[in-house]
Amino acid sequence: MKTVTIYTDGACSGNPGPGGWGAILLYGEHKKELSGGEAQTTNNRMELTAVIRALSCLKEPCIVELWSDSKYIIDALEKGWAVGWRKRGWVKADKKPALNPDLWEQLLDLLEVHELHCHWVKGHAENAFNNRCDEMAVAESRKVKGT
Questions:
Q1: So what's the pLDDT on residue 123?
Q2: Which of 48, 50, 67, 140 could form a disulfide with 8, with the two C-beta atoms 3.0–4.6 Å apart?
Q3: Banded model confidence at residue 126, pLDDT cuts 50, 70, 90
Q4: Does the predicted TM-score (pTM) go above 0.85?
């Protein structure tokens, strides 16, 4: 299988409010940037959307090295929380409803195709790819907001 590196980030002005997401896919010398936004959303939804949209670009099963500054996503995947939420009908261990089940469902379906390795990266720090994803996400958020 091919190994693809993906960087993602989400941004939201307010929370909820206008939001944006950015993703960068790297394979060999190839680089693809993606971004988008929504008028009324949350930061977590934008973080999830970035990962989903990036994975959806892959045309065949891949090994994916995912880099994100979202502890929400990294922990939910690495610690098995999202799989547990789905098994319990989108209910968390504390019996409260899991947030964003529509997006988690899409993401978990994509992960049945790809082999994912998660990596947490400190946001707004030294990583040029994470910083570029943040720039794209913030720009999309502002575009949706109209500023």
A1: 82
A2: 50
A3: confident
A4: yes
| Nearest to 73, CA basis, from 7, 4, 27 | 7
Find the mean pLDDT for residues 13-27: 95
User: The tokens 């899991």 sit on which residue?
Assistant: 98
109 included as an active-site residue: no
CATH number of the domain that residue 122 is part of: 3.30.420.10
30 vs 14: CA distance, rounded Å: 35
The domain in which residue 93 lies consists of 2-145
Residue ranges with strand state E in 13-79: 17-27, 30-41, 62-68
Question: Per the structure, how many domains does the chain have?
Answer: 1
Q: Which of 20, 36, 37, 47 is catalytic?
A: 47
pLDDT at 147 exceeding the cut of 70: no
